[in-house]
Amino acid sequence: MQRAKIQISDLENALDMFKNLTVHVVGDTIIDTYTECSMIGGQTKTPTISVKFESKVDILGGAGIVARHLSAAGASVIFSTVLGQDDYTEFVESELQRDGIKNLSIVDHNRPTTNKNAIVVGGYRLLKVDTLDNSSISDDQLTLLRSQIMNEKCNAVVFSDFRHGIFNKRTIGPLVESIPSNTFKVADSQVASRWGNILDFQRFDLITPNEREARFALGDQDSGIRSLVSELYEKSQCALLILKLGDRGIITCQDSEPSTLDSYFVMDSFVEKLVDPVGAGDALLAYSTLAMLSTKNPTIASILGNLAAACECEYEGNVPVTPENLRLKISYIAEALR
């Protein structure tokens, strides 16, 4: 399979096309809290660390930041999630309204909004305190989500799975079946504090796991990356697989014969100065989705997704990446290659 040469103008033109797209994000909302403290010292009687509270900031994360990336890129965004009845519900609603995202949140009176509070001292995370309920959503909530997926018109549905109640063995099948035909299907399933499995999302148009998630899904700790990506591509029956490799970049598999050399390509990371890698995968997910919708070109989608991930890594905190951020990165790379 011969791949056409990609020009800088192809990347810039793709960015201009995002505003014509509508994406429906379905997934677990997480409020990431960073509590900044200063060190007081240890206790003399017990091995207790004592810190002084300085400040606190809340950031909309999880599937919420995926929705914000898509909106910042220029797309129209619909967001379906399940929240608790607490102060964070208002925070989520305010953030979504500010970004012009259509909010279809379902409020569950029996669970809290997922909050992950990191205690930070001098740039080091001493402790993370999670407030959450990982139990499955109810049948009524599942029915509501299915109705939202079936009835909201969009170009793509993105399942952003953190395994905090929305996605599990009972719900994934019905949720997938609810996606209208001819709608571009995207999935990302995290393996962190919870065990997601990207193979639960079969025959999707795009999946974007990282290496750890791929190895978990296949039960394979030892194979090389080339064998790993080939097996995952075959077992997931996806159309396009972008495997995230951290500071080593990405590998993309895009062919029905993944055993051939032409079926995949590798791309180095575009990060120039690493500041904070948290959320890089969410940025890649958003921009590669929009690029596939607008160009149907896996190479352009991989480049723009990888660029978006690099931009996210060069900023403090999990903040939305804009097309302007990518244009600056593209200009910098183009100048360096001259």
Number of separate strands: 15
From the N-terminal CA to the C-terminal CA, the straight-line distance is 29 Å
Order of strands across the biggest sheet? 6-4-1-10-11-12-13-14-15
SSE order: HEEEHEEHEEEEHEHEEHHEEEHHH
> What oligomeric assembly is this protein in?
single chain
The helix tally amounts to 10
Largest sheet: 9 strands, mixed
The parts where pLDDT drops under 50 for at least 5 residues are none
Strand percentage lies at: 25-35%
Which class do the helix and strand fractions yield? alpha/beta
Molecular shape: globular
Helical percentage: 25-40%
Commentary on this structure:
The protein is α/β, with parallel strands linked by helices and 338 residues long. Helix content is 35%, strand content 26%. Strands 6-4-1-10-11-12-13-14-15 form a 9-stranded mixed beta sheet, with helices on both faces. The longest helix has 16 residues. The mean pLDDT is 92.
Keywords:
single chain, 338 residues, alpha/beta, 9-stranded mixed sheet, 10 helices, 35% helix, 26% strand
Please describe the topology of this protein.
Elements (H helix, E strand, L loop, with lengths): L7 H9 L5 E6 L1 E14 L6 E14 H10 L3 E5 L1 E3 L2 H12 L3 E2 L2 E3 L6 E7 L2 E8 L7 H13 L4 E6 L10 H6 L6 E6 L16 E2 L3 H8 L6 H12 L3 E5 L5 E4 L10 E4 L12 H16 L2 H16 L9 H15 L1
Parallel strand pairs: 1-4, 1-10, 2-8, 4-6, 5-7, 10-11, 11-12, 12-13
Antiparallel strand pairs: 2-3, 8-9, 13-14, 14-15
